Amino acid sequence: MIPRRALVVTGTFLLSVLLYVDRVCISTAKGPITKELSLTDTQFGWVMSSFAIGYALFQTPSGMLADKIGGRKILAGIVTLWSLFTGLTALAWNYWSLLIIRFLFGAGEAGAFPGMARAVYSWIPTRERGLVKGINFSGSRLGAAFALPILATAIDSFGWKQTFVVLMVVGCFWSVAWWLWFRDDPTDHPSLSKEELAYIIAHRQSGADTTPPGKMPIGHMLRSTGLWLMMTQYLFANFTTFFCLTWLYPHVKKTYELNSADAGLYSMIPLLCGALGNVISGWLVDRIYATGRHALSRKLPAIVGFLLTAIGMVMSVQQSTVGPAIFWLSLAVFGVDMILSPSWSFCIDIGGKHAGQVSGTMNMAGNIGSAIIGPAFPFLLAWTGSANVFFYIIAVCSVLAVACWTFADSTKKIPEIL
After folding, report:
1. What is the per-residue burial (b if ≥16 Cβ within 10 Å, else e) of 203-225?
2. Which CATH fold topology does 4-407 show?
3. Model pLDDT for residues 165-185, shown as the tens digit of each residue
């Protein structure tokens, strides 16, 4: 019999896939959208940045809401909301309308990962948490990877507006299924066996129940050195991540003079490697945790990941053809995705019953990085004539992120105010 917590992981994995399919669709549709709405590359960069700004601003509020009302309501609600704005993207008629719709789309998506973090906190034993978060985030990369060539074909065949509407319908279907099946407290789930419930309660983090948490005001939370280190390194990580989800496809297509299908196939390779990095890192987190070295289980995979990112970015700009360039970019993305499982596991560890709020705050900082990259990449490209400076900046930031992890300690929980 399949453990019911495995179905929770499956549901959040599929949500992660959908999250990034919806997110990268606009990047894949850059050509027809900019042509139809008469947008420059700089304007399109701000459109993508507007998503990141909306996503960042609503991270902490969404996390606080997830902690208050639970993963069932927050995830069903926000997936419905962002799916509606995905469909409304097809109604954009100029630059400003698209800018506003994508901002609201980002605000709608903001509660996804904090909501998942809260569900994981209640349902998943601590010893399984690293791999589960790795699986969750691998879904985002797999969704983005396979979406690039599939969406490129769909947009060429049916049009970008129709494609956005189909994605809206898929999202609404997931929301209904989640609402009908999931329960915030495992003890309330009708199909959970007594044996599995006993196992979850015995092995999840101490106090991981759905009773009302104590208070954690934002000012109090922000006194945590560990949280600030997580926010900083996550901001640096999102420089690479957001580039891959927005500018990688048009960059590869233009730089190496590829058609849409070939550009989609090449662009999916780094994202597939990112999915692999997520799973391997999650497995490594749990293996090290099982040896009793709890802080090291979060620290080591992230440090290795950022070092691989720095190496991959520097080497990628030394290549003159698409194959070797994609190889080194794939190494960089594999590395940066290694930091996701330890980062979110770290925030769940120090946040406890406020896991949604704490992880959402880290994700907010990360998406400030995303908002910077949206317009920064085309600006640097126009200013310097190549992408080299951008990649070197990412390499330096990755080394600085290693320093953040060197001083981070996941065993120092943020205390509640009772």
Report:
1. ebbeebbbeebeebeeeebeebe
2. Growth Hormone; Chain: A; (1.20.1250)
3. 999 999 999 999 999 999 888
